[in-house]
Specification:
By secondary structure, the protein is α+β, with helices and mostly antiparallel strands. The chain has helices at residues 12-37, 107-168, 173-230, 353-357; strands at 40-44, 50-52, 54-58, 61-77, 82-87, 94-95, 100-105, 233-235, 240-244, 252-253, 258-275, 287-292, 295-309, 312-319, 332-338, 343-349, 361-365, 371-376, 378-382, 386-391, 398-400, 412-416. The protein is built from four helices and 22 strands. Strands 1-22-18-17-21-2 form a six-stranded mixed sheet, with no helix packed on it. A six-stranded antiparallel beta barrel has the order 4-11-14-13-12-15. The protein has a four-stranded antiparallel sheet with strand order 3-16-20-19, with no helix packed on it. Strand 17 (361-365) and strand 18 (371-376) form a beta hairpin. The protein is elongated, with a radius of gyration of 51 Å. Mean pLDDT is 83; it is low at 30-36.
């Protein structure tokens, strides 16, 4: 006869083991699935550049590219147009101040200058004649006054003698009265001459001042006329090197047209273009350095031109000390301009990641160095070596600083050996 067998219940500890196994398996599956959902870029470690965040002095330096230019240059322009008649020096020659460079010919200018000279000379002669006339009139008036004075003296003597003769009855009263009347008349004539002399003096002084002014203007016009003709002979205004003289004999040049350029070669300056981003931080007297032929040179910012053209502005720098002996006009220099004093801060070596992320995020390696996770950061100033870290990173963090071009859309980078 069959009997019913009782089923034994599973011990609680076995249920616990099963639960633990299920949880472990679930956690593993979840980890695998979660890990698979993270966009991961796998790349050999040797293809990446990894840099550490460090605390140090940030030097506010920007790279600039400058060009050697003469400190002083003088441009030669045609004051008056004309045809090139003769060239006395060759381009590239060293010239002295006042040395003739080239001769222009202009027939119309020559005739105009001659006519102006004639007209001005005639006007000057006319003014000189007027001045001479004033002097002649002055002398004539003075002579009339002298004559009147002399007549008064003679009449005074005659009157004195006739007074005694009239008293003695030797001369008639009529003769005496005639002398008295003549004396009175000559006194009035003298007074008239003197009044006329004062009037003539006032007129002469006023006119002489006007004539002097007119003469000065006419002489200036004469000099301008002569200089306009003399300007056809182009001379070197300063001593230096004639670096440009693009002219040919027989070629016509218009007034104001460029004829050439003379450079002072004993002193140079550096002309550089700087990005407009730094326009508010660039000032005179800031220092810029560069290396040339194994030597370090320092320049000082002399002038900042505020005009911005195509995203850049121009500055002039001068050498702080003697000029390098092996530089040439037009030579390019790679320089470093210091914008401020060094500041202690967190530094991240600059790399290709800056162009790809703008410095807004980076890939930071974990402790094992196998994975690098994306992390948002905030950066400040940058130079050609470092970028200043404001937040998001700590000292000692290892960051991929090479280009992110192939992994810009990824959330994680896996480094393979």
């Amino acid at each position: 006869m069959d009997r019913v067998l009782e089923q034994k219940k599973m011990p609680a500890w076995k249920w616990g083991l099963i639960a633990v196994a299920l949880l472990t398996a679930g956690w593993f599956v979840y980890g695998v699935l979660a890990d698979a959902s993270i966009r991961t870029y796998r790349v050999p470690a040797e293809q990446l550049i990894v840099s550490s965040v460090e605390f140090g002095a940030f030097e506010d330096i920007i790279p600039i590219r400058g060009t050697i230019q003469p400190f002083n240059s003088v441009f030669l322009d045609a004051v008056n147009g004309g045809a090139i008649e003769e060239v006395f020096v060759e381009e590239g020659s060293f010239v002295e101040a006042g040395q003739p460079l080239l001769q222009l010919s202009n027939t119309n200018l020559r005739l105009s200058a001659a006519q102006n000279d004639t007209n001005i000379t005639e006007q000057l002669n006319l003014l000189n004649n007027i001045t001479d006339g004033f002097e002649t009139t002055k002398l004539s008036t003075e002579r009339q006054i002298i004559d009147s004075d002399y007549k008064l003296i003679v009449l005074e003597r005659q009157k004195a003698r006739h007074e005694q003769l009239v008293a003695d009855g030797l001369v008639s009263i009529e003769q005496y009265d005639a002398i008295v009347d003549e004396l009175e008349y000559q006194s009035k004539v003298l007074a008239n001459h003197q009044a006329r002399q004062q009037l003539e003096n006032r007129i002469r002084e006023t006119r002489l001042v006007q004539i002097e002014t007119q003469v000065e203007k006419l002489e200036e016009n004469l000099q301008v006329s002569q200089s306009s003709f003399e300007s056809l002979l182009v001379r070197a205004p300063i001593a230096g090197q004639l670096t440009s003289l693009p002219v040919e004999i027989g070629e016509s040049k218009q007034a104001g047209q460029r004829l050439g350029q003379i450079d002072v070669i004993d002193q140079y300056k550096v002309v550089a273009q700087i990005d407009e981003f730094y326009v508010s931080r660039v000032f005179a007297d800031q220092a810029a350095s560069f290396s040339l032929a194994g030597r370090e040179y320092i320049t000082r910012l002399l002038k900042v031109y505020p005009e911005i053209t195509e995203g850049t502005f121009e500055v002039d720098l001068v050498f702080d000390g003697p000029n390098p002996s092996d530089v040439r006009r037009g030579q390019s220099l790679q320089m470093e301009l210091t914008l401020g004093s060094p500041v202690e801060t967190l530094l991240l070596p600059i790399g290709g990641f800056v162009q790809d992320t703008g410095g807004n995020w980076v890939f930071v390696l974990d402790d094992d160095g196998i994975y690098a996770n994306r992390r948002d950061i905030r950066v400040g100033r940058r130079n050609n070596r470092y970028v200043e870290v404001i937040e998001g990173l700590q000292q000692g963090d290892r960051v991929i600083t090479s280009s992110y071009r192939q992994m810009a859309d990824m959330e994680r980078v896996q480094l393979s050996q």
